[in-house]
Design a protein that fits this description.
It is a single chain. This protein is mainly β. The protein has a single domain (2-330), classed as monomeric porin ompg (Porin, Beta Barrel), CATH 2.40.160.40. The chain has helices at 2-10, 119-129, and strands at 54-70, 79-99, 102-114, 145-149, 155-156, 163-166, 170-178, 187-195, 209-219, 224-235, 239-240, 243-244, 248-261, 264-274, 286-297, 302-313, 319-330. The strands form two sheets. The chain has a twelve-stranded antiparallel barrel. The chain has a two-stranded antiparallel sheet with strand order 11-12.
């Protein structure tokens, strides 16, 4: 992947042409089955909308979630935990620029979780290329299950269930801190988010949350930019559906965008987060996602986005494989 990133940079010309507008990183979320109802911080550029400019964005995320630690369970109590299922989500985000570097927005998501249909495809991928399957082959395909024991080895009764419901409505605010008029240097911004407890069943018990994030971007030549972000979320509830969650969760991202043509950006991105669940035995301390995708700038302000996501550190607490897509328009 490092070689691919270097190749993207090498493809950028030395700056003889006018650089196309940067499109930013992939604003995806941590949709892992146990994280799906909670607020997470998306990767974002510190670039504001212009005064009275409006952006509408419809995005979707579909992924397979599988994590297994310990034995197969039974009377010996050797199972630490298992998470087996799929998630799907869709969200409409509307943002408006107010000038002076300020952008405000609202996001309304619809969430689904259940047994899904991706297990067979992922198993075939693993068999074909000889990749380890993380224990998937020990369990039936396309099932929905969350089970485990706490740190004292007592069974935990997860109260979640499959189904579709509204997620929490999010309010967001971006304010540029520096570099608003500097196209060739660092630009930084602060982002604040509030997750309102408006979700419906089966996601209604997640409570609300607050998030704060520092964002930065810098050009790398005429046709590439690097983005970085660091922040944290705070949840209003520690216990959700029988699991204990970390109340404050630090998160970060690092992304590279290479604009290979005036209408096409290729993006490589890493998203990291601290431990999520605290009372499951042997639950790992953090996750790291790799996301690789593209954004396509079309006429009349339209943009298409597509990407894949893969958990690469502590895969037993991260989405195994996912697909991301979005369509957006500025006007």
């Amino acid at each position: 992947m490092t070689l691919a990133a270097l190749a993207l940079l090498a493809a950028a010309p030395a700056g003889a042409q006018t650089a196309p507008t940067r499109r930013g990183p992939l604003p995806s979320r941590d949709e892992w089955l146990l994280a799906q109802p909670l607020l997470t911080l998306p990767a974002a550029a510190p670039d504001p909308l212009e005064r009275r400019q409006v952006e509408a964005r419809l995005d979707g995320d579909w992924g397979s979630d599988f994590g297994w630690v310990g034995g197969l369970g039974g009377s010996t109590g050797d199972l630490r935990y298992i998470v087996d299922g799929e998630h799907r989500s869709a969200a409409l985000t509307v943002r408006r620029g107010f000038g002076g570097g300020l952008t405000l927005g609202i996001r309304v998501p619809v969430l689904w979780r259940g047994p899904g249909i991706m297990d067979g495809m992922i198993d075939g991928w693993h068999r074909t290329f000889g990749f380890p399957d993380g224990g998937r082959s020990y369990f039936p395909d396309n099932r929905f299950r969350v089970d485990g024991r706490d740190t004292s080895r007592r069974p935990i009764a997860w109260a979640g269930r499959a189904g579709t419901g509204l997620g929490n409505v999010e309010m967001e605010a971006y304010e540029v801190l520096s570099g608003l008029e500097e196209a060739g240097g660092w630009r930084t911004a602060a982002s604040l988010r509030a997750s309102l407890p408006t979700a419906s069943a089966p996601f209604a018990g997640a409570g609300g949350g607050l998030g704060a994030q520092l964002l930065a971007a810098h050009p790398l030549g005429a046709r590439a930019d690097v983005y970085a972000g660091l922040g944290a979320t705070v949840f209003t509830r520690r216990e959700v559906e029988g699991l204990d969650y970390r109340r404050t969760r630090p998160q970060a991202f690092l992304a590279l965008e290479a604009r290979l043509t005036r209408g096409w950006s290729a993006i490589v991105q890493l998203d990291a987060a601290a431990r999520l669940v605290t009372n499951l035995d042997s639950y790992p301390g953090g996750t790291l996602y790799l996301r690789v995708g593209s954004k396509f700038g079309l006429h009349h302000g339209w943009t298409l986005e597509g990407a894949i996501t893969e958990g690469i550190i502590n895969q037993v607490a991260a989405t195994d494989f996912g697909l991301i897509g979005a369509v957006a328009r500025r006007f």
